[in-house]
Design goal:
This protein has a 6-stranded mixed β-sheet, with helices on both faces. Strands 2-1-4 form a 3-stranded antiparallel β-sheet, with helices on one face. The chain starts with a strand and ends with a helix. It is built from 10 helices and 9 strands. The longest helix has 18 residues. The protein has 2 domains: 187 residues, 3-Layer(aba) Sandwich (Rossmann fold), CATH 3.40.50.300; 63 residues, no CATH class. The protein is of the alpha/beta class. 37% of the residues lie in helices and 22% in strands.
Length: 259
């Protein structure tokens, strides 16, 4: 079932064309990653889907009543503002304690409810933003470079949590990422964007596409090597992909070796 789609969408920032004639659709339960260089329109695509920017051409369709969770690229919190995590999760409208606790548990940080937002590490903050995005069990989860600033094991662990949430909630996931080597192991489909859709498809197909290599260069070989390492064996339908920190560090060494 298609959750959301774009047909021929074009968007400008002033006179600058951010997106041109973009066709896009995401279906229930799918994980789609959007990659592209800086200024390629990745964040604009997500902001258009949540209605924060309007296209000057084309259309965006989504079913009435569809719930969308959104994890922004950045969130600045005044360090002098007293704001515990539990209170943050109830803004702007009150959320029950049980729902807040469930969201933190699902995000992998059940013990952070009483911590001050300003005292969180980068990884903890991203997990709290993820908890806020899944409070109401969204049909579609949108993430804008959610692992920016995290080290590679931290990024790998975050993406494994996203895979687990897809299974727990049955939601679709659309994320913008610059962590190509991790993305390859976490996505059903990759879209390469550079103001328009350059190529899209299964991660291994996109990684070998001339358009992708033209944008990212020879370093994409490391990304594909890591993707193959993770998926060179069969998985049962209900398998657990969370292999722990040792698995993340093993992948780090594999990537460095490939480079």
């Amino acid at each position: 079932m298609t959750l959301m789609s774009m047909q021929g969408v074009s968007i400008r920032h002033g006179s600058f064309p951010a997106l041109s004639n973009v066709d896009f659709a995401i279906t229930k339960g799918e994980i789609v990653t959007v990659v592209g260089p800086n200024g390629s329109g990745k964040s604009t695509l997500l902001r258009a889907l949540i209605g924060a920017v309007k296209p000057y051409a084309g259309r965006i369709d989504r079913p009435r009543g569809m719930r969308v969770g959104y994890v922004p690229q950045k969130l600045h919190i005044d360090p002098t503002l007293p704001m515990p995590v539990d209170r943050f999760l109830s803004l702007p409208t009150r959320v029950s304690p049980a729902r807040r606790a469930t969201a933190l548990e699902r995000a992998g940080v059940p013990d952070l409810a009483g911590r001050q937002m300003a005292a969180l590490s980068g990884g903890q903050l991203q997990r709290v933003l993820l908890a806020r995005a899944i409070l109401h069990e969204p049909h579609l989860l949108l993430l804008d470079e959610p692992t920016q600033g995290l080290d590679q094991p931290g990024a790998a662990a975050f993406y494994r949590r996203i895979e687990d949430l897809r299974g727990e909630l049955g939601c679709a996931v659309l994320m913008v990422s610059h962590d190509l080597h991790v993305v390859m192991s976490a996505s059903d489909r990759v879209i390469c964007l550079n103001g328009h859709v350059c190529c899209e498809g299964h991660p291994e197909i996109v990684a070998s596409a001339p358009e992708y290599r033209a944008l990212f260069g020879s370093g994409t070989g490391g990304a594909l090597a890591l993707y193959r390492h993770e998926h060179d064996h069969e998985h049962d339908a209900g398998c657990d992909h969370d292999h722990g920190s040792d698995h993340a560090h093993d992948h780090k060494h594999k990537h460095e070796a490939a480079e």
